[in-house]
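Let's practice the habit of predicting before peeking. Look at the sequence and jot down your guess about where helices and strands might fall. Then scroll down.
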Amino acid sequence: MRRISRYLPLLLVLFCGIQYASAQSDFDLNIGVGAIQAKASSTQVDQNLNPCTTGDLYGPCVSTPALSGATIGFGGDLMMTKKFGFGGEVAFQPAKQTYVNLNASAAAAGVNALAVTSRMTLFDFNGIYQPVHTKKVAVKLEGGIGAANLKFYENASSSSVLGSQNSSQYFGSANHFQVHGGLGVQIYINDHIYIRPEFDVHYVRNLTQFGSNIVTSEMVWVGYSWGDR
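Done guessing? Here is the structure:
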């Protein structure tokens, strides 16, 4: 709930447009689920997540994974006309992804397992163009800017006469500027409820934690629309 509450201000700002939209055009709120991807880096890291090579003082050197996993999103759009509008979205990984396993460091620290996990969150503010708009379907092209936040957590597990113990603590985070583009087809079930499959591409500047600045995602949004379509 704390994570969801962080994004409520974005939705509240968009919600303020409902009164205007009802008299002018179309306003909607939506929730989505999907997946996210970016390829793995060829650079290995040490226990402090710094780039390293075999034999490094702070080794062992460990390979990092590709960015992957399920995402949950929240967003809203305000169409000022039938073709043009703006909106905002936030999508995050609800589950942490294993970034590196530090088994050798775990043994040195006297624990059974030690890993660093990560969680990606993407924020977008977009302009929207609808080249196709009917009562049953709309094609949406989005483009805009935003931010990408990548948080890291240290997770450890150990066992003793007292039983098994697990701990997790915040390790650090990295913030990046990003440019976003997306294509979605909005299919109306009735006058208000719709489903929108969408494909998105994010150019995330200096995303050195993975092997590419290009992050792709696929989402299926379900939303409710107010106003005159």
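How did you do? The CA atoms of residues 25 and 228 lie 5 Å apart.
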